């Protein structure tokens, strides 16, 4: 397994593929309230909703990187176990559990090239009803996963604090919504994409916007692509050792009345020499409780109040089901939900849109 801290044991990411130059925000500076770093964070959250977060020198940053590396090993043990064993933990209606390779479709209606295990946060933290059956390899590594989850949640909280300030919201607005004390559908998502047959390369995970609030993503091998605002050309994100990739999800667009952005992204086979590598990723998907309202926040001087809410007054739980139903009906639900960066209608086949996280 390649290292998340250095690129020396990973085949090189090629220099000749189109990449997006995401800003690199320093967690240490954010944590100490650095103004310029905070402004850079807010700018990218309104433009693409994506950025790299440098963890290396932040307090606890290296501990998190080490734990993520260990968590990758745990997921590798799970994904390399026999299919019949993995299938004993099937996908639940909440999208948690094991999604087999090919369990969803890609743009052309063919099966995806990605297997996923979603570990519910509530189960890890002992909140709500915990009648989930957890695969033994994840179950026996709970201490590691809980520590890793708490660190990723704390990273998301730091981002929440800066967004509160820039949106002129009362302190702790987003933090309180996402408190670890409340039951929520948040999860740790482990993904595995094996190398593909070079003569038959297809999208591994189709285009989507994340339907939570903030995703803290770790990957080592390339393949993640973003469709930048006002563009029809997918661009690769070049993984940077020591950094997480952060992206905002749909709730942030709703609550901010479109000031923040949740951007379309997908995963394709790794480029160049990386194509022969197994690709593992870990996404901490921070979500609000199911009963949380999705209406835009009627506070502060930044969130526009004059327009209609995109999704009307509904709870997060209802929003989640509506989005999934819309996708089933073939409705393009991304074009008015991505936020400020969008002023052209993106032409995407509705079949490409799926609520994956
Ligand atoms: O594997 C990746 O790099 C991205 C995964 C992703 O977009 C997701 O889990 O929602
Ligand atoms: Fe995603």
TrEMBL record:
Any GO MF annotation of the entry: oxidoreductase activity
Record-linked InterPro entries: DIOX_N (IPR026992), IPNS-like_FE2OG_OXY (IPR044861), IPNS-like_sf (IPR027443), Iron_ascorbate_oxido_reductase (IPR050231), Oxoglu/Fe-dep_dioxygenase_dom (IPR005123)
GO terms (BP aspect): small molecule biosynthetic process
Domain Fe2OG dioxygenase: 184-288
SUPFAM superfamilies linked: Clavaminate synthase-like (SSF51197)
Entry keywords, A to Z: Iron, Metal-binding, Oxidoreductase
Matching PROSITE patterns: FE2OG_OXY (PS51471)
Domain of life according to the entry: Eukaryota
Similarity annotation: Belongs to the iron/ascorbate-dependent oxidoreductase family.
Protein name: Fe2OG dioxygenase domain-containing protein
Organism of provenance: Ramalina farinacea
